[in-house]
Amino acid sequence: MDLLLGVVDVFLHVDLYLNQMVVFLGPWVYVMLFMIIFSETGFVVTPFLPGDSLLFACGALAALDGSPLSVHFLFALLITAAILGNTANYSIGYWVGPRVFHSEKSWLFNKTYLLRTQKFYARHGGKTIIITRFLPILRTFAPFVAGIGKMTYKRFTAYNALGGISWVASFLYAGFYLGNIPSVKRNFHIIIAIIIIISVMPAVVQFIQLRREHRKAC
User: Fold this and answer.
1) What is the pTM assigned to this prediction?
2) At what angle do helices 29-42 and 52-62 cross, to 10 degrees?
3) What's the pLDDT tens digit per position in 167-195?
4) How far is the C-alpha of 34 from the C-alpha of 80, rounded, in Å?
5) Residue 180: how many CB atoms within 10 A of its CB?
6) What are residue 103's DSSP bridge partners?
7) What is the DSSP string of 66-88?
């Protein structure tokens, strides 16, 4: 329970923690930010790391007078982290898929699921990679599943770059231009909470729809 509360606190007060890290780490904070964004998109086991809210907070902090952070350097750095993270996740899925989904009798790792995934990503993989960039948790799983589904590397790379640039630019520069407006600054924690809720909402709606469809089918 304490761990969960700690994670929620980091999400809602990411600006405070970021300020502390900038003071404590100095220029090394760039390395920390790179690793967070890389890990949040690069490993299936780390979807809980802050993404949207962290980008917004970075932009807001970079806009302050005398800030040690450069928004344009952050833009280049975090785009690189996002693209490389997705690429690593895709590579893991590409390598793991055939070795795990080989049985036709397994209820969880059935080869049929692998074939369905391959068909789905052949038809809808591109837009899935872009759209899920803006959906926490799903953006962590999408490249992994794309690798399992054997989406071609060339096609994945193109959509991965487009999605990564769009995602980082949207939240980073939104924070830079809006984060220090007095009304936004006074209610920064509320803005961060709203960003998190809006980001998660599509996934929640989709989950509810799937549950309803499953109940009707039963």
Assistant:
1) 0.76
2) 160
3) 999 999 998 988 777 776 666 667 766 77
4) 8
5) 17
6) 110
7) T-S--HHHHHHHHHHHHHHHHHH
